[in-house]
Design goal:
0% strand; mainly alpha
Length: 253
């Protein structure tokens, strides 16, 4: 069965991608919130936040990109929950296809849908004045970090998608992930925060990821932040993948 994994997964990914393209409102809904946040922070709060010589839209865009991903993966959990309740997993398991192909199809669909959302958000930021002198390699590094972060959060989304008791529960897990960038360096420098809040902001995964992307956009040395960001992303990915596969085997076995 393993020999057919890639072909089966490609076919099943095409199936889930067709569902996304037939309901583009999910992608539109995903980008509305981050774009609205950009408008509010840049044009309402931006003038009151001191980011030195850095334009505020440049400063806060990395955090907005992470919020976009956190918003998008809630739909991954929703699509998985819908397939679970419709019995499609059981039907596919009765066919001569790779057992994990259905699950990986949802993961690859999440990556593709979030990529579209990120491109739209970056386009909106460009219209609002975002500019970057970053070269091709820096942009590829940013894309790689965002891809790794999306993959990590997607495997987190798989767990409630498979195990939630209701559609609301399947998507509700994303709310803390959307809120996390607000307690980080995404929107204000951590130096302005009170002691305990500052400590949390500087020791949670979003801050090194945001700092790394911001430095790459600004063509600044990334320092140790990039390694801390990668450790966080890979660590979350590994843990989430293990728990997701345990949940999958328990539900489908």
């Amino acid at each position: 069965m393993t020999a057919y994994f890639f072909g089966d997964t490609a076919v099943l990914t095409g199936r889930t991608l067709r569902h996304v393209t037939r309901s583009m409102d999910t992608i539109i809904t995903t980008v509305i919130t981050p774009v609205a946040m950009m408008l509010m922070f840049v044009y309402v709060f931006g003038g009151a936040i001191d980011t030195g010589s850095v334009a505020y839209v440049n400063y806060m865009l990395p955090g907005i990109l992470l919020i976009t991903i956190a918003s998008g993966i809630s739909y991954t959990a929703y699509r998985l929950f819908t397939d679970m309740k419709s019995g499609i997993f059981e039907r596919f398991q009765s066919m001569p296809i790779a057992r994990s192909g259905v699950l990986w199809a949802h993961v690859f669909t999440s990556l593709a849908a979030n990529l579209i959302s990120l491109v739209i958000v970056v386009g909106a930021a460009l219209l609002m004045g975002f500019r970057s002198g970053a070269g091709v390699l820096a942009w590829l590094a940013v894309a790689g970090i965002l891809l790794l972060f999306t993959l990590a959060l997607t495997w987190i989304a798989v767990i409630p998608g498979l195990s939630a008791a209701s559609v609301e529960g399947a998507g509700a897990f994303a709310y803390p992930l959307i809120f996390l960038p607000f307690i980080s360096s995404a929107f204000v420098p951590t130096e302005t925060m009170p002691g305990p809040v500052r400590w949390f902001a500087e020791h949670q995964p979003v801050t090194p990821i945001v700092n790394t992307i911001r430095d790459l956009f600004a063509r600044q040395p990334v320092g140790d932040d990039i390694w801390i960001a990668l450790v966080w992303c890979v660590g979350i990915l590994v843990v989430a993948y293990v728990f997701a596969m345990v949940t999958y085997r328990r539900k489908i076995a």
